[in-house]
Amino acid sequence: MSDATTQERPATLSRKIPAPAVTIESKPFWDAAKEGRFLIKKCNDCNEAHWYPRALCPFCFSDKTEWVESPGEGVIYTFSVMRRSPTGPYAIGYVTLDEGPAVLTNFVDCTPDQLKIGLRVKVKFQDTEKGPPVPVFSPL
Amino acid sequence: MSIKGKAYIMGAFEHPLRDAPNHSTPQLHAECAKGALEDAGLTKDDIDGYFCAGDAPGFGGMSMIDYMGLKNVRHMDSTETGGSSYLLHVGHAAQAIAEGKCKVALITLAGRPRQNQGGRFGGFGGGGGLTDGPPENGFENIYGGTTHNTYAMCAARHMYEYGTTSEQLAWIKVAASHHAQWNEHAMLRDVVTVEDVLNSPMIADPLHRLDCCVVSDGGGALIVTSPEIAKSLNRPKVKIIGAGEAPKGPKGGRDLDLTHSGAVWSGPIAFEEAGVKPSDIRYASIYDSFTITVLMQLEDLGFCEKGQGGKFVADGNLISGVGKLPFNTDGGGLCNNHPTNRGGITKVIEAVRQLRGEAHPKVQVPNCDLALAHGTGGSLGTRHGSATVIMEREA
Known about the structure:
The complex is a heterodimer. Chain A has one helix at 27-34, and strands at residues 39-43, 49-50, 65-69, 73-82, 90-97, 102-107, 120-128, 131-139. Chain A is mainly β. Chain B is of the alpha/beta class. Helix content of chain B is 32%, strand content 13%. At the A-B interface, strand 4, strand 5 and strand 6 of A face helix 1, helix 2, helix 4, helix 5 and strand 4 of B.
């Protein structure tokens, strides 16, 4: 698409995101988010990564789960652009991380027609009011 | 029938903590479950029944089943009677086991009132302090998920994997509208076309306004009786011959598959108990929060092959008197009503009308002797509970 058509392009997707509910169990994730690091949980017994992060592995029920840093890269599993929104369109979807688990998120810094199932995306953190920054994804 | 001698308590665990500043409430529930399983010598994959009360964070048992990764649950009960809930659950678990509805039931209680200032779940956060609500909240609720866009995500993936089209989804609304025209109480009585659906505003890609159900007030009620009482009453008898239920959630995000619902588990359980197959069903009430809900459930219940739902619903196949599987002859949630955003009971009510021969003459299925009602509650795109009921008219 050439620059000449810029005015006709749909607006870049963005969304104001509220502060997340932080629990004692999820606090390490959000503390790392403040440093721009994306953590996931991995089980030291079955070696599987899971999402959202839990103290006990949802696959083998081991309590030997560990926080590990992830590059936060993966592909779009599915998405939907919410058109009926008082604050403008926004995109919600799942990303299948390279480590395996699928993550619910918003897609930003792209136009709706750029989004495709299978598109490679990467995490970034978006500031919230009165809370830690939250992970969102944009095309690589 | 009695529960006497039909069930045993084989695992028990009491959490050692009396002050738990470093545990979340879901974690306490899970640690109790793990302790009881280890005591019994079982694993979590053996659990096929889950019982909890209001102390379990989330939506009935849905959040805790998903948190713990319980993947074989086929019976759920979140009856809440305060501190007596768990004794009542023992009785309910024994009933479920006696009836063959489950074999290994898990009952949990946990909480941390010493940590949670400002209510059981400590409010909903936002001020920088810690909260203790449903475990998925912080990681999901912030992204603007609504019923529309989370069901839309399922539709998008179904289209991607199976080539399902918006035109095919639209046929579901068209069929519902053909039925609603005869229902004087229906909110939307105008017959619509595929084009009308496609030309209605996009709400959440790929779902249009007319792919969505109505929002309505209202309600419904049912009376279920013993065979003796049924015989004494002067009404046609609708016999319950099969029931199945199952939860579904992302369960750790591995192998996320949004192209099917929990009906893939609840359906076969109900059909097996009833001793009938999908092709025997004369009328089906299928939960229709959105057109995609209907399409996926029809596939999952076995009315057609997986991925063939689009072809199955096209060309009026769901219209009474026209197609092979008359559905939602009251107009359903798509056109009639969806009381308090929970249409489950109206699905049973229209199935009862059909079996009694009391549906509107224009939509009454001739000699309707076997009907199915199926519901999905929660979100198809995150976590939901599925339930299937099969009913028979008794002469």
